[in-house]
Amino acid sequence: MKGKETLKTVGLFAALALFVAALYMVFIYVPTEAQMGVVQRIFYFHVPLAWLGLLSYTLVFISSIMFLWKRNASWDNLASSAAEIGFIFTTLFLISGSLWAKPAWGVWWTWTPRLTTALILWFIYIAYLTVRFYAPEKQQGARFGAVVGIVGFVDVPIIALATTIWQSEHPGALIFEGGLAPEMKLTLMTSIAAFTVLYIFLLTLSTGLKKRENEIEELREKLE
Amino acid sequence: MGYLFAVTGIVWAVVFGYVLFIMGRQRKLQQEIQTLKQLIDEKNKAGRK
């Protein structure tokens, strides 16, 4: 138990240290982009949030399959934790995208394939969480949630490939296509690392919480 | 610049808010586990008598 607590504390400090480094790089180190100016720096928040929103649903997908196959509560805990945190990160990447779109494109929102499919993912997350919350029985909610977790994954590769398949205002993956100065690439990588460590820390906390909730249910059954 | 600060502020506020929520909930659940374990112990002792 003590080892796990130490690991959690180390994880939290690692996330904080990386965040301090990322903030320094975003606000001070990285050069200002020539066309969009200072507002382009939202990119260093928006991209990591988007990456983790998609990664999280991938985790929901894998955990849902494993849960339906193995019927082990740990997989269900992982799926529901990934869904909660993924929903938060997806909400944040939609908000950050909108706050970037307004100064860059002159509109808060536009129905491009990338944005539309990302919004669909947000609704899929809501569907997953709603199905679990409103199910008459916890086990039933877990099973229905797992089905949504599996079917909903179809949106993830569509979002990832949207800018490749369809041309629109939304830029493609600059990190792969080139067009990022070395300082910008380094800043983006640091930001992605910071957010990813934070995500792992939050996931660990959340799955621990769900384990305790399961423990409470078992203890209550013993009392009856 | 305002948009950039808005994004930074929102991201930090939401993330910290969620961390505080989880930690608070964790403390509450831990207390409930302790209480339930005590009640089970008392029930077992009463059963033995």
Structural account:
The complex is a heterodimer of chains A (224) and B (49). Chain A has 224 residues and is mostly helical. Chain A has one domain: Four Helix Bundle (Hemerythrin (Met), subunit A) (Up-down Bundle). Chain A is built from eight helices and no strands. Chain A starts with a helix and ends with a helix. The mean pLDDT of chain A is 90. Chain B is rod-shaped, with a radius of gyration of 21 Å. Helices cover 96% and strands 0% of the residues of chain B. Chain B contains one helix and no strands. At the A-B interface, helix 2, helix 3 and helix 8 of A face helix 1 of B.
Protein traits:
heterodimer; A: mainly alpha; Four Helix Bundle (Hemerythrin (Met), subunit A); 0% strand; B: 49 residues; mainly alpha; 96% helix
Largest interface chains and counts: A-B, 32 and 25 residues
Span between termini of chain A: 29 Å
For the sheet with most strands of chain B, the description reads: none
Distance between the termini of chain B: 72 Å
By DSSP (H or I, 4+ residues per run), the number of helices of chain B equals: 1
For this structure, what is the CATH class of chain A?
Mainly Alpha
Strand segment count of chain A: 0
Structure class of chain A: mainly alpha
Give the fraction of residues assigned to helices of chain A.
Answer: over 70%
Question: Rg of chain B to the nearest angstrom?
Answer: 21 Å
Oligomer classification = heterodimer
Q: Judging from the principal axes of the Cα atoms, what is the shape of chain A? A: globular
Percentage of residues in helical conformation of chain B = over 70%
